[in-house]
Amino acid sequence: MQHPSRQRLSALIFDMDGLMIDSERLYFAAEREMAAHFGKEIRDEQLWPLMGRKPIESLRLLREILKIDMPPEELFVWRNRLMLEKMRHDLGAMPGLVEILDAFRGRLKLAVGTGAQQEFLDIALDTLRIRPYFDVLQTADALERGKPDPEIYLLTCRRLGLPPGECIVLEDARNGVLAGKAAGCPVIAVPNDYTRGQDFSDADWVEPDLFAAARRIEKLLN
What we know:
- This protein is α/β, with parallel strands linked by helices.
- Helix content is about 45%, strand content about 10%.
- It has helices spanning about 25-35, 45, 55-65, 70-90, 95-105, 120-130, 150-160, 175-185, 210-220; strands at about 10-15, 110-115, 135-140, 165-170, 185-190, 205.
- A six-stranded parallel β-sheet has the order 3-2-1-4-5-6, covered by helices on one side.
- About 45% of the residues are buried.
- The mean pLDDT is about 90.
């Protein structure tokens, strides 16, 4: 675990899936449903490498894991359909999300940097009614490379008009932590039930939930 020296902090960048919203269980359920269609089972740790990547990249990996011939583009359409249905009927905020947004709104710039596509982000923001909190919303749609590549966080920092060193990234998965660190951002990892077994040694801090992450940020600001 790294501990950067004291520095100016100007923004928070939130991952979405599994950090802001309780969606990792929905992805895992959708991918298990897809695997079952081919008579296969899939373990949590096999799905970890998919997390945070561009959707089409994650489905190329799923295709390899399942050893199936269906083109990743068809898998993409299939998983989108399953996920849109699940998100519209069973989507909730992770504990502490509204509280951390309220705590730093107006004090720091707030942004989302998600590996998901725009339609998924729109559902989350509008279902939870949190769109007005954010200064920048960055999805994977226009990216060339998904996490763990730093492109998404470099672009988000550029859109915020801030150097990466002033932008704390909050992430729930190893791929996202690696992306944030490669971009030059300090990173707080907040593992969830689906990512706790991952390696978070590259994060600057690891906190059990967003309430604890907010306390950590307060200490950094004081």
